[in-house]
Amino acid sequence: MSLEDKISKQVRSIPRSGIRDFFELVLGRNDVISLGVGEPDYSTPWHIREAAIYSLERGETSYTSNLGLEKLRRSISDYVKEHFEVAYDPAREILVTVGVSEALDLACRALLNPGDEFIYHEPCYVSYDPSVALAYGVPVPVASSAQDGFIVKAEGIEKKITPRTRVLMLNFPTNPTGSVMERAELERIAQLCIANDLIVITDEIYSELIYEEDYRHVSIASLPGMRERTILLHGFSKAFAMTGFRLGYSCAPPEITEAMMKIHQYSMLCAPITSQVAAMEALENGAAAVASMRRDYKRRRDFIVREFNEMGLPCHMPGGAFYVFPDIRSSGLSSREFASGLLDSENVAAVPGDAFGASGEGFLRCCYATDLELIKRALDGFRRFLASLKG
Ligand code: PLP
Fold this sequence. Notes:
Strand content: 5-15%
Largest sheet: 7 strands, mixed
CATH class of the largest domain: Alpha Beta
Radius of gyration: 21 Å
Structural class: alpha/beta
Number of strands: 12
Distance between the termini: 53 Å
Mean pLDDT: 95
Number of domains: 2
Bound molecules: pyridoxal-5'-phosphate
CATH topology of the largest domain: Aspartate Aminotransferase, domain 2
């Protein structure tokens, strides 16, 4: 038997991430302007880094409680109450994890029996489908479209519900489209979940990065009848520019938190203590830094959306996160052909939309958490590439 054959069938069945495939092409090239990676171009705010440094200086290098430091869970509880208007008991309903990534994996493994169906809206973050498959569930995508601003509708979800459906996964603001959700539609989705006895996993990692003054982010966990059937996932990577700290958390009723904790205690034991201390500082004193980064992202968003539309690549105005999702279909190229051509001829990297599911075909994801000067140079590259296609 070859070593390849010794790998589990489940692992062999999942494809490699389309983002990773694409970035292997980028590696080894010099001077690439990248709108590809989904992370802030800022370093973690200095006062948060300092809190981590001081913690190490104090010799805080031990394991923590499996659930996470109690003080951090209390801060998370306060923060979630203020931001999402839903209260969680820090002793039994909050689990500190190694990023939202770990929390998602735990939630899938805690909830799914083999063959259970898991609905999510697409295009979406690349981990949802494989996390479900690795937990022996059946991923069931609901396509959203550019005409609807990539908003998933209750009626689209309803069509996919079967007696095997166990979970609905939501992500607002959405990676890769930046879409946000109106309260009325979220209420319809909540009614559907209650009527069909579904658990909801809601990934709200971009919820601080909302740009319109008159829009208020609503978590489905805060709607009547939903707290008891929802796992709220959140983390520090995006708004606090802390991707490398690898810290996230889940908020869920005690039975679900306990089930997730059971897996976490064996597979991870606990999240790193240095990151947990840094996260406390982020929650207590990080609001001003988040607001300042958000102002910058908004300026970049407005600029990049205007430029794409002006060069003939229709691009909806995303309400949140830090991605735009321009429509490249008028070029006559597929997403992959466009992204490879742009990289080859202009040294500009953006992610082909189909990396986020089949309904992302015809689009590119561009992350604007990048210096404005670099964004301008990348857009010049897009213009020249489009001109070369015509010429
Ligand atoms: N959820 C979404 C929607 C994301 O876009 C990402 C990262 O890009 C993650 C989760 C992973 O977050 P973390 O760094 O907390 O693991």
